[in-house]
Recover the amino acids of this structure.
């Protein structure tokens, strides 16, 4: 197994560059901030970006928690990758990660200055400083459940080819972690209820929604509500459309991950 390291200061754009570097070197597996990633899937681990403090984030990233460490070790043993790219902020950090996960010695070290211009690094650092946002090198759907309620957005990278048909698109995720110095934000149930009622009102055939209940879970929220529908509309397609509208608008406005919208049709009324 070959171990390659990508090294650069915090906020210098390592995770942004990781997928491109991995593709160029034919590396299918990446270890970044506590996660073992294969292609566009998270195989094991827990993101350090979910930790409440910088200290706990560092401990997570270098696999100091035994259960976390064993989960990733077992996943590597099961898959037997031919190579792994470890991302870290220093030689010391990537060495610690390699040792913690019982990996072979690092055979090649790539520094962010080798693959990014000075201007690109400055842009990345300013982005981190001003916005407090971090990049995770996997698509948003992979981390959405783990970052419910965080500021989160997708980032698509186009890799140009001579033939436009061969153009490759990589999707990454931008998050603002809990430990960001920009502070935390909370969204009240009242705001969520107002948003979903507004979303439901846009669906022609829905007369009223009420009795809204919101249950918060670690991976997102479950919404329960009662609905009155206009007589003469097919109920199942109508309710499905309303559920989709609620999920789309509430997730877009709040960054919350909606696990389900459970609807009980209480009444049909004439227009």
């Amino acid at each position: 197994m070959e171990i390659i390291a990508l090294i650069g200061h915090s906020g210098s754009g390592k995770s942004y560059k990781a997928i491109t570097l991995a593709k160029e070197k034919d590396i299918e597996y990446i270890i970044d901030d506590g996660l073992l990633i294969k292609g566009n899937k998270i195989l094991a681990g827990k993101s350090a970006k979910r930790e409440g403090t910088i200290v706990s984030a560092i401990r997570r990233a270098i696999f100091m928690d035994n259960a976390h460490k064993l989960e990733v070790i077992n996943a590597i043993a099961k898959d037997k990758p031919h190579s792994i790219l470890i991302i870290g902020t220093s030689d010391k950090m990537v060495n610690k990660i390699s040792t913690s996960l019982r990996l072979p010695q690092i055979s090649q070290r790539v520094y962010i200055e080798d693959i990014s211009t000075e201007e690109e690094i400055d842009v990345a650092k300013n982005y981190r400083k001003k916005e407090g946002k971090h990049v995770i090198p996997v698509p948003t759907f992979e981390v959405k459940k783990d970052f419910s309620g965080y500021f989160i957005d997708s980032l698509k990278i186009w890799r140009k080819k001579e033939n436009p048909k061969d153009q490759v698109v990589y999707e990454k995720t931008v998050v603002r972690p809990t430990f960001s110095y920009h502070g935390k934000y909370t969204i009240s149930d009242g705001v969520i209820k107002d948003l979903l009622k507004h979303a439901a009102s846009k669906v022609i055939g829905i007369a009223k929604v009420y009795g809204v209940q919101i249950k918060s879970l670690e991976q997102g929220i479950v919404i329960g509500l009662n609905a009155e529908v206009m007589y003469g509309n097919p109920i199942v397609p109508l309710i499905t459309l309303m559920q989709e509208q609620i999920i789309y608008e509430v997730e877009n406005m709040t960054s919350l991950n909606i696990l389900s919208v459970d609807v009980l049709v209480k009444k049909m009324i004439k227009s």
The chain has two domains: 2-175, 189-269. Confidence is low (pLDDT under 50) at residues 154-161, 166-170, 181-185. The first helix runs from residue 14 to 24.
